[in-house]
Amino acid sequence: MIKVTYIQPDGREATVKARPGDSVMQTALNNNVPGIIAECGGSMACATCHVYVAEAWQTQAGARKDGEEDMLDCAMSEMRDTSRLSCQIKLTEALDGLRVYLPEEQG
């Protein structure tokens, strides 16, 4: 089982179990992790599932998909080098232990 840790802006952490093939966004929703809105349901049509991937996990999480950076430009919180749309990160066993930080605001 894959585990993902979501870190709130105030430092609180929630580690949840995930299924291979699910996205980081869907896993957050399935486990009632606050801070992921996901207005578009994962179709990369909004930026309400913005996360910052922990630097140690950037390579494993992969590069941004085509069009992802354009959506991140619309995010409420600052876009950083580690910014990703969590709907675009598909979980595999290689991502067991993934840590993502939630931004101050989504929208």
Automatic annotation (TrEMBL):
<comment type="similarity">
    <text>Belongs to the adrenodoxin/putidaredoxin family.</text>
</comment>
<dbReference type="InterPro" id="IPR001041">
    <property type="entry name" value="2Fe-2S_ferredoxin-type"/>
</dbReference>
<dbReference type="InterPro" id="IPR012675">
    <property type="entry name" value="Beta-grasp_dom_sf"/>
</dbReference>
<dbReference type="InterPro" id="IPR036010">
    <property type="entry name" value="2Fe-2S_ferredoxin-like_sf"/>
</dbReference>
<dbReference type="InterPro" id="IPR001055">
    <property type="entry name" value="Adrenodoxin-like"/>
</dbReference>
<dbReference type="GO" id="GO:0005829">
    <property type="term" value="C:cytosol"/>
</dbReference>
<dbReference type="GO" id="GO:0009055">
    <property type="term" value="F:electron transfer activity"/>
</dbReference>
<keyword id="KW-0408">Iron</keyword>
<dbReference type="InterPro" id="IPR018298">
    <property type="entry name" value="Adrenodoxin_Fe-S_BS"/>
</dbReference>
<dbReference type="GO" id="GO:0140647">
    <property type="term" value="P:P450-containing electron transport chain"/>
</dbReference>
<keyword id="KW-0614">Plasmid</keyword>
<keyword id="KW-0001">2Fe-2S</keyword>
<keyword id="KW-0479">Metal-binding</keyword>
<feature type="domain" description="2Fe-2S ferredoxin-type">
    <location>
        <begin position="2"/>
        <end position="106"/>
    </location>
</feature>
<dbReference type="GO" id="GO:0051537">
    <property type="term" value="F:2 iron, 2 sulfur cluster binding"/>
</dbReference>
<protein>
    <submittedName>
        <fullName>Ferredoxin-6</fullName>
    </submittedName>
</protein>
<dbReference type="Pfam" id="PF00111">
    <property type="entry name" value="Fer2"/>
</dbReference>
<keyword id="KW-0411">Iron-sulfur</keyword>
<dbReference type="GO" id="GO:0046872">
    <property type="term" value="F:metal ion binding"/>
</dbReference>
